[in-house]
């Protein structure tokens, strides 16, 4: 099997000290070198474009460079210049460390993840970080909030302001509205040399769940922390449709429904996600926006559903009007559930 030989050298040629070894050891060494050189993937750079690094990008800077930094704060009681976990004091060796977090969310509390609602959660999170010693005790945390009003253009400008020379944030929290999140998540890979992470509990539309491992990916720097998404809801609906052996669906939706969840046109975004995965499963669907209904909902159901999607329908009235459409005699049935206050 393995034979002892004197022709194996650790380095160089005959001029070096000969080392007795086994022929199999020599072979394994050669294979290891080839694996390191040939088989391992090439190194991947973090940045998506090369930029000169600004001094403020560092968390720890010399004390003289950190003095008199002015930060924006347009939300009363939240985001003022003194909104820091503790007074920024220089350490013994003359360094000041500060982690700056840009928070982009609406100030309007009609959205669940709004600045006034999220602020207590951020304070608790910071308290936990301090107690557990997750970051060094001499690193201050500064929150830099912006009110994006759930608008795409405004959120984009807020992201640029939060990462400019005056603020120079290290991390973006939010936006919490899907329409505002999209442009911020797109440009984040081109901010700074290494990009800037965007962490959000939103991002319900299926586009935000696409792969993000390469710079070519649209939302390369986006990190979703939420467990629920419209894609998961679509999978649930598909399982339900398959269970009852249906293959045709009429989708009634309201464009501006569930504004408190993901901002404007949440209902429309949900419908788009449902339609995307219905197509993948060869499920025939017909979307209908109740905003465009010329008559009441009952008449719209009769008109849009008709005999093409169901042969029988039942209308049950309680405090809410719940409509269930189905065909008992056919395997190609559809079910639409819609709530409407009387």
Q: Based on Cα principal axes, name the global outline.
A: globular
The biggest beta sheet is recorded as: 6 strands, mixed
Rg over CA atoms, rounded to whole Å, is 29 Å
Extract low-pLDDT stretches.
Answer: 9-13, 15-22, 67-82, 312-342
Range of strand content: 15-25%
Total E-strand runs: 13
Overall pLDDT, averaged? 75
The end-to-end distance, rounded to whole angstroms, is 87 Å
Written as H for each helix and E for each strand, in order along the chain, the element string is EEHEHEHEHEHEEHEHHEHEEE
Number of helices: 9
The helix content, as a percent range, equals 25-40%
Task: Write a structural description.
The chain has 342 residues and is an alpha/beta fold. Helices cover 31% and strands 19% of the residues. It is built from 9 helices and 13 strands. The chain has helices spanning 23-39, 63-66, 115-132, 152-162, 178-187, 230-243, 259-262, 266-280, 297-309, and strands at 4-5, 21-22, 60-62, 95-105, 139-147, 171-173, 198-200, 222-224, 248-253, 284-289, 312-317, 320-326, 339-341. Strands 3, 4, 5, 6, 7 and 8 form a 6-stranded mixed beta sheet that branches. A 3-stranded antiparallel beta sheet has the order 11-12-13, with helices on one face. The chain has a two-stranded antiparallel ribbon with strand order 1-2. Helix 4 (152-162) crosses helix 5. The chain is globular. The termini are far apart. The relative contact order is 0.09.
């Amino acid at each position: 099997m393995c034979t002892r030989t004197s022709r194996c050298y650790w380095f160089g040629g005959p001029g070096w000290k000969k080392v007795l070894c086994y022929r199999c050891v020599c072979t394994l060494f050669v294979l290891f070198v080839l694996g390191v050189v040939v088989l391992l993937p090439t190194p991947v750079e973090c940045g998506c474009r090369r930029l000169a690094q600004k001094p403020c990008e560092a968390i720890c800077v010399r004390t003289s460079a950190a003095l008199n930094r002015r930060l924006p704060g347009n939300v009363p009681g939240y985001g003022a210049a003194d909104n820091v976990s503790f007074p920024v004091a220089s350490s013994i060796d003359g360094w000041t460390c500060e982690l700056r977090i840009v928070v982009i969310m609406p100030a309007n509390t009609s959205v669940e993840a709004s600045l006034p609602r999220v602020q207590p959660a951020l304070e608790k999170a910071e308290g936990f970080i301090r107690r557990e010693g997750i970051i060094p005790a001499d690193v201050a945390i500064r929150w830099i909030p912006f009110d994006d009003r759930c608008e795409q253009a405004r959120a984009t400008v807020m992201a640029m302001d939060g990462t400019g020379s005056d603020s120079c944030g290290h991390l973006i929290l939010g936006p919490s509205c899907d329409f505002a999140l999209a442009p911020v998540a797109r440009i984040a890979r081109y901010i700074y040399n290494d990009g800037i992470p965007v962490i959000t509990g939103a991002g319900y539309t299926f586009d935000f769940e696409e792969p993000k491992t390469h710079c070519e990916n649209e939302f390369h720097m986006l990190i979703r922390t939420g467990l629920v998404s419209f894609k998961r809801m679509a999978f649930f609906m598909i399982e339900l449709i398959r269970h009852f052996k249906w293959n045709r669906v009429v989708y009634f939706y309201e464009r501006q429904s569930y504004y408190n969840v993901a901002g404007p046109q949440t209902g429309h975004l949900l419908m788009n996600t449902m339609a995307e995965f219905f197509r993948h499963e060869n499920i025939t669907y017909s979307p209908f926006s109740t905003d465009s209904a010329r008559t009441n909902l009952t008449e719209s159901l009769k008109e849009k559903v008709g005999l093409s999607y169901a042969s029988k329908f039942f209308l049950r009235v309680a405090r809410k009007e719940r409509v269930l459409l189905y065909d008992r005699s056919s395997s190609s049935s559809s079910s639409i559930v819609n709530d409407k206050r009387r």
